[in-house]
Amino acid sequence: VQKLNLKLVTHQKSYKEELLLNLRELELSAGDVLEIYHPDPRIYPRRRYPRLLLQVPNLAAKEESVVQKDSISVEQSIAVQFGLQTYQYVSVTKVVPEKVSLQLLELTFKDQYLNRSDMWRFSQSLMSTVVYKNKTVEFCSQTVRCQVYDMWSQGSRVACGYVSEDTKVVYRSSTSRFYLFIQMSSEMWEFDHYGDLYFEKAVSGFLTELFDKWKLMNTNHEVTIVLFSRSFYPTARSMSQFPEDMKPFIQQDPLGRFFQDFYRVAVQNERHEDWSCVLRTLRQLFYHY
């Protein structure tokens, strides 16, 4: 099969398969990888929508009868994501899987625990399949569920591709446990050459961008933030110079200087959709540190 022009229709998620077509009439077999796109650039601007790759499923005769021989049916949300217009003709081309294979596949999971064994089995189950951006992939009777986050092929980011034996699969958790330590050194009260306080750059810059990125990625991390600092006692020459109640907390570095570490837990094991309240708390602690 070189290229077919078929009328596009859509179906709901109630159907098990993402792609429905008449295999016998179109001379296709289960497992074939198809590239689907609008041949008319006025309908399908390539700069906005990438071409869709889907794999021909093993359809039962009842499922094949749903679609006419000159039509192809794509699950509705997929058609919307790739800009495919219903009841318009699309070009359907059978492609060689190796030419569209992925170099890297990133999967995200949430509110689940996956060990190394689970990841390896999951990766094996994805072999010889086609994935696309935001696709939900499941394993072991839906007990493990991940979402396709990013894909790379031939050094470029792509919207869909074929998972081969050489594809590297990376798993990223959206519900990790984070410990953020902010060192409250003397530089935090100094200004840079633009007149910005270094502490404000840490809070309004780094942390704000980090939390905004988490919100964009719909993560649900559990965060602990600790402020810490180290105070040196340059005039101390021996441990006997310190009061008895301080001696258990006094330490000495390799240079012979005596110091004491201080910690302040600002946030402990918290999850927020809006982290602005945490930023306000950090600013208040800075003023009284």
TrEMBL record:
Domain IML1 N-terminal double psi beta-barrel residues, every copy: 6-93
Matches recorded under InterPro entries: IML1 (IPR027244), IML1_double_psi_beta_barrel (IPR055213), IML1_N (IPR048255)
Domain spans labelled Vacuolar membrane-associated protein Iml1 N-terminal: 106-288
Pfam families recorded: IML1, IML1_N
One BP annotation, GO: negative regulation of TORC1 signaling
GO CC field: GATOR1 complex; lysosomal membrane
One of the record's GO molecular function terms: GTPase activator activity
Name used for this protein in its record: DEP domain-containing protein 5-like
Species this protein is from: Hirondellea gigas
